[in-house]
Write a structure and sequence with these properties.
The protein has 283 residues and is mainly α. It is built from twelve helices and no strands.
Length: 283
């Protein structure tokens, strides 16, 4: 019997093909479709990262709720670490909500106070939920906060800084399109950060939402459709406004999806197929 094609192989084959194509179409696409005055893209630039940060915040809030504060170093250290992460993500969330992405004069003291208030409210809410119920969300919490930091921050800036690719709108601003470089040619540390797209990476950081639903369930399928749609809309907005080339968003979103699949495979408990267990017992 012919084996079915592994969906992951198919997915990354398509992604690889798009990466090759983008090397040839990056600049023409921007010249035809980019509009730095696009209102919907400006809205996404200002607030499009909020859902991804929010998922990270709720993820680490679950872990903080589940942490047992006992009188030993490991318990205290993990509690302090989780507390700092929760405050940071809550502060980051309010910074985004107050417009830091579009250069608004953000009152960071207010953002910090609101962040602490949100942390207290959410923890009070979570502590009304029984321990057994909260335990069901542990893996969601682990994947959500790890994905946000590893894919949304560390990987993005680990590539952005040394790659040094000019954005299309920066080239338009100085009137020199000869500064365009294909994605596969890093330019070194020069203060330009087009490759890869951080906004797109954080747009796809909503992926852990699917873990809140059971597989092979209508809601699970709807959740997948919604999170992928949100990620794609976030990616398109970056191209529409001239902030990123197609290859920038392709790699920004692609690496987030890859990290999600890795974390899911490593941390998600997979229940054995009952038929497999029966066959093993029969043998």
């Amino acid at each position: 019997m012919k084996k079915n094609t592994n969906p992951y192989i198919l997915l990354f084959s398509v992604w690889g093909l798009l990466a090759i194509i983008s090397a040839f179409i990056d600049l023409p696409v921007m010249q035809k479709y980019a509009n730095p005055q696009s209102e919907w893209a400006h809205f996404m630039e200002a607030y499009g990262q909020i859902p991804g940060v929010m998922i990270g915040f709720f993820g680490v809030s679950v872990l903080l709720r589940l942490n047992k504060f006992e009188k030993n170093f490991k318990s205290i250290a993990s509690g302090v670490g989780l507390g700092i992460l929760t405050i940071f993500t809550s502060f980051m969330l309010w910074g985004e909500a107050l417009g830091q992405q579009v250069g608004a004069d953000v009152n960071y003291i207010l953002a910090f106070v609101l962040g602490i208030l949100l942390l207290v409210i959410v923890q009070a809410w979570f502590r009304r939920v029984p321990d057994g119920t909260m335990q069901e969300y542990r893996t969601f919490g682990q994947i959500a906060i790890t994905l946000m930091f590893v894919a949304g921050l560390v990987t993005v800036w680990g590539i952005k800084i040394p790659w040094g690719r000019w954005t299309y709108r920066d080239m338009l601003e100085i009137g020199d399109l000869s500064l365009f470089t294909p994605w596969y040619l890093p330019q070194g540390i020069n203060g330009h950060h087009s490759f890869i797209s951080g906004h797109t990476a954080l747009s796809f950081c909503v992926l852990p939402v699917v873990l809140l639903f059971r597989k092979n369930n209508k809601r699970y399928s709807i959740a997948w459709l919604l999170v992928i749609t949100w990620g794609v809309v976030g990616a398109l907005s970056r191209v529409a406004i001239g902030a990123h080339f197609p290859s920038d968003v392709l790699f920004g979103g692609g690496q987030t999806i890859l990290w999600f699949l890795i974390l899911q495979r490593k941390l998600l408990r997979v229940e054995p197929d009952p038929s497999t267990v029966v066959n093993q017992n029969a043998n």
